[in-house]
Amino acid sequence: GEDVEQSLFLSVREGDSSVINCTYTDSSSTYLYWYKQEPGAGLQLLTYIFSNMDMKQDQRLTVLLNKKDKHLSLRIADTQTGDSAIYFCAERPGGYGNKLVFGAGTILRVKS
Amino acid sequence: NAGVTQTPKFQVLKTGQSMTLQCAQDMNHEYMSWYRQDPGMGLRLIHYSVGAGITDQGEVPNGYNVSRSTTEDFPLRLLSAAPSQTSVYFCASTMTGTGANVLTFGAGSRLTVL
């Protein structure tokens, strides 16, 4: 079945870049997503990438997709304390409509 | 435009009690879904619906029931609560179709079963 793996914790200093990594198993996934969850809140979409792209940039966020290795990463440039949150990677397996398979989430801690 | 609204935000139940978590969206989304979030396990799909009158099971449906009588509402029923159902529950919705169909999430409902 589908599975998404993420490292559980990342700690960076304010101003540094953060890189959160994710691996997924379903090679037919059409879209891959990054969601952010702040304490006590729901998930909000950060960005997504279509499976025929290998990079997407959106202001401080850069998503890299290596489809051969089924590896997705999210780079946050100039990380701020407000970026401290849980980041979820999710895949949308092909042929499964709108169902998403989520990773366990990476806790990002930004030290000032 | 309220988005996805979940009620209640917090609930404490005793084992064996039943309750309903409410979810409503005002975006005319055909697709609605329920996830539960547990530490270290991410979000797991409980049930979903692709339109009024149509529901289907997700990854962890046991102990839960859903119905979809209107486009706007998708309640989740716990039939006989168990401590294993202690979790944070999220409702999410989106349009159907072949685009990115980004899920919009509610703020969550934290349930504790004693």
How would you describe the overall organization of this protein?
The complex is a heterodimer of chains A (112) and B (114). Chain A is an all-beta fold and 112 residues long. Chain A is built from no helices and eleven strands. In chain A, the strands form two sheets. In chain A, strands 2, 4, 5, 9, 10 and 11 form a six-stranded mixed beta sheet that branches. In chain A, strands 1-3-8-7-6 form a five-stranded antiparallel beta sheet, with no helix packed on it. The radius of gyration of chain A is 13 Å and the shape is globular. Chain B is mainly β and 114 residues long. Chain B is built from no helices and eleven strands. Chain B is globular, with a radius of gyration of 13 Å. Classes of the chains: A mainly beta (112), B mainly beta (114). At the A-B interface, strand 4 and strand 5 of A face strand 4, strand 5 and strand 9 of B.
Care to give the gist of this entry?
The complex is a heterodimer of chains A (112) and B (114). Chain A is mainly beta and 112 residues long. Chain A has strands spanning 4-6, 9-13, 18-24, 31-37, 43-50, 55-58, 61-66, 71-76, 85-92, 101-102, 106-111.
Notable traits:
heterodimer; A: 112 residues; mainly beta; 6-stranded mixed β-sheet; 5-stranded antiparallel β-sheet; globular; B: 114 residues; 7-stranded mixed β-sheet; 4-stranded antiparallel β-sheet
